[in-house]
Amino acid sequence: MPYQLPLPDVPLPLQLRQLDHERMGRYRDNLAFYQGRHWTGRGRRGERRLTFNYARAIVDKVTGYLLAGAAVQVVGDDSPAGIERARAAEQALRRVEAANGLSQLDFETELDCAILGDGAYRVAWDAAAGEVRVTAPDVQGLFAWREPADPARLTAVAHRYRAGDEELVEWWSAETFELWRGSELADRVPNPYGFIPYVIFPNLREPKEAWGASDLPPVMEANRELNRAFSQLSQVLELSGNPIAVLEGVTGSEDITVEPGAIWEVPEDARAYLLDLLQGGGVALHTAYIDLLYRVIHDLGESPRTAFGHNPQGLSGVALNMELDPIARKVERKRRIRTAVYERRAWMVLQLLARFTGLEVEGLRPVMQWGPVLPADRSRQVQDARALVEAGIISRRTAAATLGIDDPELERAFVREEAG
């Protein structure tokens, strides 16, 4: 549900406390489940509660596939001057990536986004250090105002966070920046950047919803049932290892112990025996049910067991790719969202470098490049890229970027230098 604009007579921090309780509760529940808090309520006395966190394994696995081969390329016109500007901008972008450790930051942010359902980046100028600072604020402290006809377009962002014992709130619109300390307005100035320096994005989109969906809800119930099934089977095996003595026609049970060499004295018409909980294939029923739950978890999580190294048939090539197709499709859905996210972030970086360092960015635009989701034959990739270049379908720079070369122009310069 879209927010109303802040009320002028009520401090902004007080207004934020009335917003998004449902979203914040969802974040807390998802995070708790990822951390292994699967059981609800108080268990019965002596109840065994095992936790096998397959949900976490699936989230980690999908995130690992997502960022494989990710890189931003800067493109411009085909003139020599345009190519040189694009190369200089791309090198500046690489320096910002290295200075901010974006490789690690991106993985952590994508993991957090998959758990909570939403992620965010902030791009700002650090005047003291004289460089662009890219951070990933906690979405639990972000509130977004959006265009009614286009929820992906932000009109304002409030960012609440703590600095020591003090609560701070930043308010950003395209025209204004405000800083609140507690419930007091500490500063209000024109926006120094000319744009809202946040990229807020969903993990996966839900129709007609501005905020995203976590990877966890589809597998939560199956994971809870798997925990219950394992706990039950564990209890059965323990009782079978310490068998229950059953006495029929006996009024007392003193001195009845189950141990090697034990002798029981029972009345003539009484009957004594050990209860066998494993008779009739009981364990097989449990294990068959657990295998069924495995399948449910992997199907709903779109992460086949093959992605975890389970390949008893020795599949390879096209057959292996077909087996892994569900996780590839899920990653592709995420990449469609992330392409706009990382291009927007790179655009912000270039705009700040242009404003504060004089970098020429006129006519340039960032383009996101992704590596293959599934393992690929490197020699086949090279052959395909060469064929596309020779056919005039893609440029040499694009082909090089697709093959994982960060600076194609610099690499071509090395080739020319070696050729003499």
Compact summary:
Helix 4 crosses helix 9 and helix 6 packs antiparallel against helix 7 (282-300).
Which helices and strands occur, and which strands form pairs?
Elements: H1 12-16, H2 21-34, H3 54-66, E1 71-75, H4 80-99, H5 102-116, E2 118-126, E3 131-135, E4 142-147, E5 150-163, E6 166-173, E7 176-181, E8 184-190, E9 198-202, H6 217-241, E10 244-248, E11 271-275, H7 282-300, H8 317-323, H9 325-357, E12 365-369, H10 378-390, H11 396-402, H12 408-419
Antiparallel strand pairs: 1-12, 2-3, 2-9, 4-5, 5-6, 6-7, 7-8, 10-11
Order of helices and strands: HHHEHHEEEEEEEEHEEHHHEHHH
- The helix/strand class is alpha+beta
How many domains, in number, for the residues?
3
Instruction: From the alpha carbons, calculate the radius of gyration and give it in angstroms.
Output: 30 Å
Low-confidence stretches: none
Number of E-type strands: 12
Q: Largest beta sheet: what is the strand line-up?
A: 4-5-6-7-8
Shape: flat
- Strand content bin: 15-25%
Q: How many strands, what sense, and barrel or not for the largest sheet?
A: 5 strands, antiparallel
Q: What percent of residues adopt helix (DSSP H or I)?
A: 40-55%
How far is the first residue's CA from the last residue's CA? 64 Å
Count of DSSP-assigned helices: 12
Mean pLDDT: 86
